[in-house]
Amino acid sequence: MLVPVPYDRQKSVQYAQKWALARNPRYFNFDGLGGDCTNFASQCVYAGCGVMNFTKDRGWYYRNPSSRAPAWSGVEFLYRFLTANRGAGPYAREADVGELEPGDLIQLGNGSGHFYHTPVVTSIKAGTILVAAHTYDVWDRPLQSYVFARMRCLHILGARRWK
Question: What is the pTM of this model?
């Protein structure tokens, strides 16, 4: 039976603050393989929920670089997992920018609809969204300082685990 797990936004942001400008040695650094942003975003979400989904190929998990789900480090795969997940692990819905809270994710894309970057919301101050991200490591960077054509916001609703 699946039971709900609350999403601890504070733990997610604390993790982001600790590792935004460094690398947690528990996780592989994907900078040289297309970027580390979604790997870092997944680490932050995991810090906030503590539950992975070990469904082969379609889940969301990380054991090591060769034993991980595509959703752990791939922008589009993470979006599909979070918005469609009905099983174990975190789940989210696409939201308006005004609904974002610390610990939520933003995905940035180009004009043709290719999404390529996943920063984590760290805070919202006077209407300014601040984010943390890897690849080009940042902490509390204003979202509006990025150049992008499209954006989608993922509001993390919680997680589920098997009882």
Answer: 0.97
